[in-house]
Design goal:
Elements: H1 2-15, H2 31-55, H3 62-70
Length: 88
């Protein structure tokens, strides 16, 4: 719920509270419905990745763990995405 609340506040600060009822397609789908679905999909994917990492005994490096506390992304050895450099 923290992610959902954080995103809600972030969007409201930029677009106002009216963003939630804005129609995003021709079928009447509200922005809130779309964003909530995207966040749920992200959380499902995150859970699957976490379970796979645990199964394969993949852990964060010391550098990556330090980046968790700093609030800024730490890029793995590949240099492309946060966490991509971890290996099992």
């Amino acid at each position: 719920m923290v992610i959902l609340t954080t995103e809600r506040l972030r969007y409201e600060n930029v677009y106002s509270e009216e963003i939630w009822t804005a129609e995003v397609d021709g079928g009447g789908t509200a922005f809130e419905t779309v964003l909530t679905g995207q966040i749920h999909d992200f959380l499902k994917e995150l859970k699957v990745m976490s379970l796979m990492a645990r199964e394969k005994e993949i852990t964060l490096s010391s550098r990556e763990k330090a980046g968790q506390n700093s609030g800024r992304p730490v890029y793995g050895r590949s240099g492309l995405c946060p966490g991509r450099g971890v290996s099992g």
